[in-house]
Specification:
By secondary structure, the chain is mainly α. The chain has helices at 29-32, 70-84, 88-92, 95-106, 113-123, 128-131, 140-153, 165-184, 211-223, 236-256, 260-264, 305-325, 347-361, 371-383, 388-395, 400-407, 411-425; strands spanning 10-14, 46-54, 60-67, 271-272, 277-280, 283-285, 288-290, 299-302. The chain folds into three domains: 10-84, no CATH class; 95-195, DNA polymerase, domain 1 (Orthogonal Bundle); 211-417, Intergrase catalytic core (hpI Integrase, Chain A, Orthogonal Bundle), CATH 1.10.443. 47% of the residues lie in helices and 9% in strands.
């Protein structure tokens, strides 16, 4: 008998067996008790093909298929090998298994911790009935139906409501990346997610503040009027600390256009008082400092003299406050903006308890968010005629085209363009 090749399965001929006791179904105890094994129990003749496969977890598993005749079994084995490309395990892998393997094996130590958690949160939107489907059976139409269902009623927090087009597009991007990894590993021939179309994105108008609205917000932040609307009870020292701190925070964000993670992640080592500038190289997430996601986010930003003076005064105030509290104030990260114990600021806490009340007290639209301070910074610079390349660098954008595409909606810029061309067209003394 020839030696079997590596990976080749084994054909087993199971002969028929006739048990005299099993012929009497009423008197045979073994036949009626399925938990008891009987080597003489009635069985028909059949052929079994047994083989070992390596699962996505790296472990060998024994599989088997059967048929009544060897010829019928050989046909089934041949068809199985054709469909699976010679590896039966590829046909057996379901979407749920691969999603788990991809998130645990391929995302670990290859992306940032926050990015990995973001992908894991998106995986939760994949329903259970789709997770049980084999990878090779998933079609672009199935995924397109998934996107439609998520748009209609895919929200986990509010049952019956749909997800935004932005979230559904993120789910699609996650599936493209995940299934592309399955293609690279030989579990799929093509990536069905790449054959789908993303839902139409309704671009929202950017919310930014006018010059008057900026002055109103600064006035409210400086005066601390919003504290009358606070429900929490704070002593005078804590109240003064927060009023002075948020006043500096609002001014600095408007003066630099920093993102929220960047401004809350600033340390005193990042401030250069002599050159009136600051260096952005940290991002505060989950009370920890991490490097920005892209190289463009690491940048030097010049700051006006008045704002730098406010920062310098705040530094002196924080040092004095720290001395008064002693060990109760522990600013291990040397952050510029902290809570009253020196710990990093939690953005959601700041937004709900302080910023939203500032906006309401100033009489501004509820559409104004903390990110609107960044948009307002860019808008005011564009209206002042500053070179877009300089603005793009201050904002940490990857290119000028993205900056221009984001802020071309500004009405004043369009009006200035019309007036500029009008001066040329209506000039009484054209140059010869």
């Amino acid at each position: 008998m020839a030696r079997r090749a590596w990976g080749e399965g084994t054909y087993i001929h199971v002969l028929p067996v006739k048990c005299s006791k099993c012929s009497d179904r009423f008197s045979c105890v073994i036949k009626n008790d399925k938990s008891v094994k009987c080597s003489k129990r009635d069985r028909a003749e059949r052929w079994i093909y047994q083989y070992y496969v390596v699962g996505i977890d790296g472990k060998r598993k024994r599989k088997g298929i059967s048929a009544k005749t060897r010829k019928a079994l050989a046909d089934r084995v041949e068809q199985l090998q054709i469909e699976s490309g010679g590896a039966a395990t590829k046909e057996e892998v379901v979407l749920g298994q691969w999603l788990q393997t991809w998130s645990e094996k391929y995302l670990a130590n290859t992306v940032r911790k926050t990015t990995k958690q973001y992908y894991i949160d998106l995986i939760k939107y994949i329903p259970e009935n789709m997770r049980t489907l084999k990878l090779v059976k998933i079609t672009p139409v199935m995924l397109q139906e998934l996107y439609i269902n998520l748009l209609k009623h895919g929200c986990k927090k509010h049952l019956g409501k749909g997800l935004s087009a932005t979230t559904v597009r993120s789910v699609r991007s996650m599936l493209i990346t995940c299934l592309e990894s399955a293609v690279d590993n030989g579990y799929l021939q093509i990536n069905p997610a790449r054959k789908t179309k993303p839902p139409k994105l309704d671009k929202k108008e950017i919310a930014y503040m006018s010059e008057d609205e900026i002055k109103k917000l600064i006035s409210v932040a400086d005066s601390g009027e919003y504290y009358d609307k606070l429900e929490c009870a704070l002593d005078n020292s804590e109240r003064s600390y927060f009023i002075k701190e948020w006043s500096v925070l609002i001014r600095l964000t408007l003066a630099t256009g920093l993102r929220r993670g960047e401004v809350f992640g600033l340390t005193w080592n990042d401030i250069d008082f002599n050159n009136q500038s600051l260096f952005v190289h940290n991002n505060l997430q989950d009370s920890k400092l991490s490097a920005p996601k892209t190289k463009y986010s690491q940048r030097f930003i010049s700051v006006d003299k008045a704002t730098m003076e406010r920062i310098k005064d705040w530094k002196s105030y924080q040092e004095k406050y720290s001395e008064e509290l002693g060990d109760k104030f522990n600013n291990e990260l040397n952050l510029i903006f902290t809570n009253t114990c020196g710990r990093p600021v939690r953005y959601d806490n700041f937004r709900i308890r302080y910023f939203d009340k500032m906006i309401k007290t100033a009489g501004l639209s509820s559409r104004i968010t903390f990110h609107s301070l960044r948009h307002s910074h860019a808008t005011q610079l564009l209206q002042a005629g500053i070179n877009p390349k300089i603005i793009s660098k201050r904002l940490g954008h990857s290119n000028v085209a993205f900056t221009l595409q984001t802020y071309t909606h500004v009405p004043d810029l369009e009006r200035e363009s019309a007036e500029a061309i009008a001066k040329i067209l209506n000039s009484d003394n054209p140059k010869k």
